Amino acid sequence: MTAVVSVVSAPWPAPVASGPLDAVVELPGSKSLSARALVTAAVADGPTTLHGALRSRDTELMRAALTTLGARFEELPDESGGCADAALRVTPAPRPFPTRADGDAVARIDCGLAGTVMRFIPPLAALADAPVVFDGDAAARRRPLAPLLEALAALGAEVEYLGEPGFLPVRVGPGDGALLRPADPARPDLPHQAGVDASGSSQFLSALLLVGCLLPGGLAVTPSGPVPSLPHVAMTVEFLRGRGVTVDEPAPDAPVGARTWTVHPGTPQGGTLVIEPDLSNAGPFLAAALVAGGRVGVRRWPGGTTQAGDAWRWLLPRLGGAVEEAPAADGSLTLTAVGTGELHGIDADLSAVGELTPTVAALAALASAQGHASRLRGIGHLRGHETDRLAALEAEINRVGGRAHQTADGLEIAALHAGARLRPARLRAYADHRMATFAAVVGLGVPGIEVDDIACTAKTLPDFPALWTSLLTDQEAR
Ligand SMILES: O=C(O)C1=C[C@@H](OP(=O)(O)O)[C@@H](O)[C@H](O)C1
Ligand SMILES: C=C(OP(=O)(O)O)C(=O)O
User: Fold this and answer.
1) Phi, psi of 23 (to 5 degrees)
2) Which class of enzymes does this protein belong to (predicted)?
3) Which of 149, 167, 267, 419 has its CA at a distance of 20 to 30 angstroms from the CA of residue 133?
């Protein structure tokens, strides 16, 4: 069983590449797809069998949360036909979600540092038999939550802040059961209506869409402003549709503030699902080929996907690499990054793919020592990620001798003068898996990099240190 508590490790010396790489990696399931699969399976009309679902701290916390709401999970012997993980059978929870299994004690849900748990589960607590208390890591208590909780309260849920208003810990419950009744008793077919400011996280919108189908009449959600990470919203929509739920999306040219997503009422179908590998976590491995030179392939790359990580196809060529695709018999691809060690700077709006930023920033920092400047834009919301990623990237790039500074909505990395090199340093991970892998990518090209807490990669990729080392082991074996 993957650890649900967060374990801090001893400093980890990042391996340095001694020459071109030639490796192919198999990565576990997508965190974001696994989260949606677990949530929809837990509220489905019958059992679901998941193949390839991620086993990591975030998904273990998600399973624990859904168990608290009455869902059941059972590992099956591996018949997954090549998927890395054994199959998981999910028995859905009865409704209202029974949280009182342990008597009258109020149920508690630990969100850890998982945005998916702290955003996707509170709406479900509004459909439980009693209020639920949510809390998480110290860093989770700083992550934005207020817009979602305000939207839930406006819909009629009970929301009581137990600490700083707008943040974890919070108690969420059904209130007087408004969400269990039609919005308009005279027109039970009409959806409930919600507004939400999702400019801080697309997960607020996804969370409302995921619960929407369970409400009598469904739910229409109109974000009041821009929404980052729109591929993740598209993933939520596709996921619900794949489970038989009807979702209407706004026209792409509808003005910001007047875009409505409508989820029609219906229970997601059970059945069988295969989860794609995590393409965001593929980033550091593909980036390694650009840093060290050579080739790194990722197996089972989907032919079509809503994952933000598919953007590596256009990002890596802009950073100095090439991308090759080789079709496999099952319709998937092996996507291979090819590099020479020569990097380019990049000027890019990453708002749609914000979670790729730390890996892009690692390449941009290494490119700065080759005389190239970079500008990463549209990512102010990263200040509310696992840590304030703009502050963390600024601090860690400067710690290795780079010249980075935050802007209102991003990060600028200046070109270093000819002959300047990045220097050895112990880099901080800030409990953030993507800051840890940022440091690993930098360390591949800069001797003497240590990472203070590589174990935090367990949030989404528990095997990261071994997988990362295998890139170089393959190198030595040639
Ligand atoms: O819905 C999801 O699974 C996610 C949405 C995005 O969140 P933000 O919109 O907060 O960036 C992304 O960065 C996060 O890693 C996962
Ligand atoms: C922002 C991230 O995670 P979370 O799902 O916790 O928001 C991430 O993985 O980059």
Assistant:
1) -140, 155
2) transferase
3) 267
Flag the least confident range among 175-179, 214-218, 472-476: 472-476
pLDDT for 463 equals 94
Q: Ligand 1: which of 32, 61, 236, 389 to mutate, most ligand atoms within 8 Å of CB?
A: 32
Summarised one tens digit per residue, pLDDT across range 145-198 is 999 999 999 999 999 999 999 999 999 999 999 999 999 999 999 999 999 999
Give the pair of three-digit tokens for residue 450. 């240590």
Helix 202-212 vs helix 146-155: crossing angle, to nearest 10 = 30
Domain ranges for the chain, please list them: 12-27+277-477, 31-270
Query: What does pTM read for this prediction?
Result: 0.96
Task: Please say whether the beta carbons of 204 and 229 come within 8 A.
Answer: no
CATH number for the segment(s) 12-27+277-477: 3.65.10.10
Q: Is the dihedral of CA 75, 77, 78, 81 positive or negative?
A: negative
In the beta sheet, which residues pair with residue 261? 221
Mutate which of 58, 356, 379, 386 to test ligand 2's pocket (most atoms within 8 Å of Cβ)? Answer: 386
Of 354, 360, 466, 367, which Cα lies nearest the Cα of 415?
Answer: 367
φ/ψ of residue 428, rounded to 5: -90, 140
Q: Is there an atom of ligand 1 within 6 Å of 201 CB?
A: yes
d(CA 39, CA 36): 5
